[in-house]
Design goal:
The protein has 119 residues and is an alpha/beta fold. α2 links the parallel β2 and β3. A five-stranded mixed sheet has the order 1-3-2-4-5. It has one domain: Glutaredoxin, CATH 3.40.30.10. The protein has five helices and five strands; from the N terminus they run βαβαβαββαα.
């Protein structure tokens, strides 16, 4: 079984709306930073089997990339319990990705939902 799941327009919504942490890497084959980030992302996936790691090829899924408002690749999105909690373009170093994962795991989701509800 692969550690990183390829998502498409048919599997994206059901994948991000599950319980727990879901990290999605939006990438393109022609993108050098994307290719450099891929082994970092795959390494983190191997270290964190409790997290769903997924990727979206923006060239193969342009409608999905557009719907997600992706304007630059790579872009990393993080969802926790179906809530978007992080979305930024740019490749992360292994230490930066580790810090991001730990901060997402530490979020108080009741507080996040309260903040979202209050605007």
């Amino acid at each position: 079984m692969t550690a990183v799941h390829a998502l498409n327009q048919h599997t994206f919504a059901s994948s991000i709306h599950q319980d727990g942490v879901v990290l999605v890497d939006f990438w393109a084959e022609w993108c050098r930073p994307c290719r450099a980030f891929a082994p970092v992302f795959e390494g983190a996936a191997a270290e964190h089997p409790e997290i769903m790691f997924a990727s979206v090829d923006t060239e193969a899924e342009p409608a999905l990339a557009s719907a997600a408002k992706i304007t630059s690749v790579p872009t990393l999105m993080a969802f926790r319990d179906g809530v978007l909690v992080y979305s930024r373009p740019g490749a992360l170093a292994p230490a930066g990705l580790h810090e991001l994962i730990e901060s997402i795991k530490a979020l108080d989701m009741n507080e996040v939902r309260t903040q979202l509800a209050s605007g």
